[in-house]
Amino acid sequence: MKTIDCRNMACPLPVVTVKRALESAGGETVRVLLDDGPSRENVRRFVVERGYAVEESSLSEGVAFVIGGVSRDEASADGSAGGRKVVLITSDRLGEGPEELGRLLMKNFIITLLDLDVVPDRMLFVNGGIFLTTEGSEVLEALEKLGNRGVEVLSCGVCLDFYHRKDKLRAGAVTNMFTIADSLLGDRPVLKL
């Protein structure tokens, strides 16, 4: 079993390193050492999404994942991502024009999603969009309800750090640029707001 140490790596290097290790492992088990926190969550999300089995254990400094099996991507004959829908939200406003109107439109869009039969599988919040997932947002309850319906609500960790809002995240989880790029460039329809 190969062991890789991803502790003390900046985002998104833990996910990229694990991806490369799994690709070169040829189906063999890989042990990964990680810091507890966002890197742990991001790597877990990455491997689970791809259908790998993962066992977690605590270490004195961080956690260890034992990742095994063949990924769903490798096992799938067509390699498709199943048509998942992704919404990329880059601002706390929708459209151009008066800020107050833009904020009202974005609020109404997110709340209206609750009344639709089809919801996105993943909502990515980047740049000013992270203000919708953090303390003080008027759509936190709606985002929580969407999360309960299976929508992944993910906020860019670099953006949260830039705006000093990481400790104020109230809806969903922190993600990294690898997951964002993978979501946007995969075989999934993307709606950018």
UniProtKB/TrEMBL annotation:
Query: What SUPFAM superfamilies is this protein classified in?
Result: DsrEFH-like (SSF75169), SirA-like (SSF64307)
What is a single Pfam family found in this protein's UniProt entry? TusA
Q: Where is the UPF0033 domain?
A: 2-61
Record family assignment = Belongs to the sulfur carrier protein TusA family.
What name is this protein filed under? SirA family protein
